[in-house]
Amino acid sequence: MTNAETMESTTTNTPQHDVVIECDIRELYYGNFKAVRDTYVPIHKGAITAFIGPSGCGKSTVLRCLNRMNDLVRGFRFEGRVNFLGRDIYDPAIDPVAIRRHIGMVFQQPNPFSMSIFNNVAFGLKLNRFKGNKEERVEMALRGAALWDEVKDKLHKSGLSLSGGQQQRLCIARAIATEPEVLLMDEPCSALDPIATRKVEELMLELKEKYTIAIVTHNLQQAQRVADKTGFLYVDTTEGSRTGYLVEFGDSDRLFEAPQEKYTQDYIRGEFS
Fold first, then answer.
1. What is the pLDDT of residues 84-142, one digit of tens each?
2. 168-213: pLDDT as tens digits
3. φ and ψ at residue 269, rounded to 5 degrees
């Protein structure tokens, strides 16, 4: 059995549990720089989990741990585990490409490829050697990203011809075309205007009916609007460096209305950045 087949078998046969991903980072390094320490986060099925905190606290680093995107950074190493449906994705037998088939990602800047709208969405299908009806799957993904009605008559035009908000929804369509279990979104609205941001937020709330979602956001109001669970990370500078760590995690309503930790209270009140 190949590594990819092993991952497929694991995700197909593992019973569904409330916690889809269990992330336990003891120490995470880029070369000699300790970027994150002491961070445990459960990602719950059918929920939106948000990571908030000041710049440099490791929010995106934690998010990228969840589908091994940090593997692409020179010098990356970490001590800990990330269990996806009961299997540690950092097991040497697991193929990172297979993981990303099940845990998709949308980045901060819309990044459509320089190809047609149709081929943008079909890209992952081709990569994963999809054998079904490609036209149906592309339409399904574009509908899922609330973009079909806007692009159905121009599928062969360049994805780069779309507006910024449309491009980000195109990237979401590309991510969900392969039907992942989990969708990671790293600051998905930071480059968008308020109207496009609202559309993406509404889309997130629709998508969580089918996908488990984890997002990084600097926008506290956005986390309050869309997230079921929120984790607050802060920066430890006691060792002369900047190391992120998890201060508090829980239901969003509770965390924003009655945070337990002083750092969380101060951040939510805007008393430091």
1. 988 999 999 999 988 988 999 999 889 999 999 999 999 988 887 888 899 999 999 99
2. 999 999 999 999 999 999 999 998 999 999 999 999 999 999 999 9
3. -80, -5
**DSSP H/E element including 22:** strand 19-30
Distance, C-alpha 273 to centroid of its chain: 23
Identity of residue 75:
G
* Site of tokens 């969003």: 252
Q: What domains can you pick out in the chain, each with its CATH number?
A: 3-268 (3.40.50.300)
CA dihedral 194, 196, 197, 198 (to 10 degrees): 90
**Is residue 7 classed as helix, strand or coil in its secondary structure?**
helix
Angle between helices 164-176 and 194-207 (to 10 degrees): 20
Q: For the whole model, what pTM was predicted? A: 0.89
Residues 6+ apart with CB under 8 A from 164: 110, 191, 192, 193, 196
The Cα 197–Cα 181 span in angstroms is: 23
